[in-house]
Amino acid sequence: MGITIKLFASLREQFARDELKTTDTPATVHDAWLRITQKERPANILAAVNHEYVNFDHPLNDGDEVAFFPPVTGG
């Protein structure tokens, strides 16, 4: 079944996509991050699973929605 990965703000621009669907399920949020970036995450990236903030060691299940958020900036 897989998962849906959503990217917001500057991450969406950096990776030129706002959503990615996988056909398999990565074990953790960290594994999902590596799937789309192929590099370790910066310390200031936040993650949510099914609309709840989680740590990057949070396990994933089929059908989950994972969202990654960059630091909030503004003026």
Automatic annotation (TrEMBL):
InterPro entries, per the entry: Beta-grasp_dom_sf, Mopterin_synth/thiamin_S_b, ThiS/MoaD-like
Domain of life: Bacteria
Gene3D superfamilies linked: 3.10.20.30
Pfam families named among the record's database cross-references: ThiS (PF02597)
Record-linked SUPFAM superfamilies: MoaD/ThiS
Protein name, entry field: ThiamineS protein
